[in-house]
Amino acid sequence: MKTAMQRDINALFDARSVAIIGASNDHTKYGNWLSVQALRMLETHTVHLVNRRGEPVLGRPTVRSLAEVTEPVDLAVIAVPAQSFEAAVDDALLAGARALVGVTAGFAETGVEGRAAQERIVAKVREAGAVLLGPNCLGVIDSTVGLTLASNPLPAGPVTLLSQSGNMALELSQFLAEHNLGFARFASLGNQADVGVSDLIRSCIDHEGTQLIAVYCEDFRDGRDFVAAAAAAREAGKPVVLLTVGGSEASVRGAQSHTGSLTSDTAVIDAACRAAGVYRVSSPRELAGVVAMLLSCPPGPVRSVGVLADGGGHASVASDVATAAGLSVPEFALGMQAALTAELPPSAGVANPVDLAGAGEQDITSFGRVLETMLADADVDAVLMTGYFGGYGEYGEGLARREIETAHRLAEIARRYQKPVAVHTMRAASPAARVLVEQGVPVFSAVEDAARALGILSRGASAPRPPLEVPAAAPALSDSYWEARELLAGAGLRYPAAELVGSADDAVAAAERTGYPVVLKAMGILHKSDAGGVALGLKDAVALRAAFVTMDTRLAAPAYCVEAMADLSDGVELIVGVQTDPRFGPVAMVGLGGIMTEVLEDVAFALAPIDADSARELLESLHAAAILHGVRGRPAVDIEAAAAAIARVTELAAAHPEIAELEVNPLLASPSGALGLDARIVLAR
Known about the structure:
Rossmann fold, six-stranded antiparallel beta sheet, ATP binding, CoA-binding protein
């Protein structure tokens, strides 16, 4: 018997002998639909139909169990009622199955008892050295070897789809078909009881038929492993495009009821996608558009876009939607404008956007010359073409022929320059548009879809930067402010001089040593400021004693801290925090601090820990980043020191798995460095 170390995920795809357990003549059952698809494989695979009554299915003989089959079975697809599923698994494992696909539902998604049954079955599968896809899934397909073990056929092509929803796969196949694309592999994730999305991503890295991996996932299980797998795929030249849920409370409820999934906050998923170099999309149509764009040219930075239109309205609208998608539509340099002017009539616009102003009707080949001029410019990262191209053929046979020739020319130019070209046309079904599609140029029927696809390329252009690995440290013993402060100071974060005190006399004595003005803080109170547990700017012993007596009378805190008052005049208050996500582990948050945190919500996220370079990128990504560089006479802060301080905080949090939350708010960034002014730890229960 194989050990778990010998388990092979590819057994799901490379089977030669397959079985459908639960084969049926009932057209309303998965066992029937799967049998129909399996019987299409007879030229390349041995197919066994298992029916508990032994009656013929679809005119072919069946067996009551795989014990009646004399040859080994590589892969079994199980579509029986939930109460019979475990027995079917036992039957398949005894027949030597290396892989099982559980179509049957009724397990973890139904509650505690279902989860217990699921875990028991998975233990059996792993003990046998086999693998289980699902349960509660739609099936598996590998068009490169003719494997069709799903309820619905899907068109062949270069995309592997890993989907936790069967219907989503069917809808996506329709959108991909509009781009002349289909699937190399399809695996329905289901409950991911055994084989998960990360395992399947890795199995595609060496699969020759897969050029790109599309994922619809609700539960990433081990989110860090997903990041590692997706980053490895990206590095191997197989980018990952992700559609997921979590942007609304309703979507989270739906995911939990559908697959028993645990979802993560959408900001956390965005951070994971940046770390892995994953392209995240928000709808199946958007996914198909981004897939088409990525397959048309190598991934690369997309920031500066040239807009090519054959009408002023389309030129202006395309420029607006491109800008809204996060792209830049800059004015072309004078040399570029001169080159375009030479190709177009005097009324044309050449500054960007480019408006052909009737050149399409007069000389449709101008589309090709203008596109080549734009792509040849080193300052143009991509071109968004919009308008009526594809409709000119309606004006006569001669123009129709030249439009087709121009379409071929446009596709050739796009291939040669290997820069993204997105074409929007109101005639997306025209012969000329189909030429573009068939030759790999993405065509969109809505200009906003084209712009968003380019915008997503721009956001996912950076190479993967998975989080740093940090060894675990000795555990934190309490969640007190003082211990948090001491832990952070020990990790290299600067704090003002301070002492822990228990009486007014002790407080005055400590202040004499640190120097006035000072801050008095009550210990053991979660939200000190809200509770009146912080007194700022105490200038002398009288003020300090009065503040201590008032605070102690009202709060009776177990201890107090006397801390030197920092100079806030030239500083910017930041917040840096780390929280533990149940799927992705520690996640860092950086933003404007103090009272501005909740008011402005100007924050950025990354998987922790991060280095100083990544911390600086987070700071620069804030909407208010300009104030860090100095505005209205204020000096610039030491961003390098602030970034280094942020990195230290994230490293400390990641090294302490017993810390559920760690926060420094404010972290004062000033021209002279970075200084922690508060700290909070929440230990995991």
